[in-house]
Amino acid sequence: xxxxxxxxxxxxxxxxxxxxxxxxxxxxxxxxxxxxxxxxxxxxxxxxxxxxxxxxxxxxxxxxxxxxxxxxxxxxxxxxxxxxxxxxxxxxxxxxxxxxxxxxxxxxxxxxxxxxxxxxxxxxxxxxxxxxxxxxxxxxxxxxxxxxxxxxxxxxxxxxxxxxxxxx
Length: 168
Known about the structure:
This protein is of the alpha+beta class. It has two domains: 5-72, no CATH class; 75-162. It is built from six helices and seven strands, in the order ββααβαβββααβα. The protein has helices spanning 25-28, 31-44, 64-74, 117-127, 132-145, 157-162; strands at 5-11, 16-22, 56-59, 76-86, 94-101, 111-114, 147-156. The strands form two sheets. It has a four-stranded antiparallel beta sheet. Strands 1-2-3 form a three-stranded mixed beta sheet. The mean pLDDT is 90.
């Protein structure tokens, strides 16, 4: 089955992530035959029982949701990633991450909270794709001062939403 776009989409009303797959087969063969082809492929790969198919949605490449997700994936924001180390000598340290955009419109800026420095480093390098050396420098400064920033950071709107750093 040819796929023109796929991504996870968060539905706040259900508090769940759903996989949206756009394929031209949806328009050419129809929803039923396209879904049947997906199920066949999952069964051939022997993963059908592990896939939560209730959260998989096949769509036309022209579907408004697909178009919106594609736009978010292309739209990039530049800004600062601010780190805040919280805690004291008697309490374990926790960390907050905030992305402060300097391009595009304003709006609420949610914070991501992480329990350990290891979780923070993993989030910044693995999830956001920031350079390991920039992350290491920021962590050293956060240990010393309690705060630090990484700049410039370029992330798509989609990446920011998936990481919980941009209001949905």
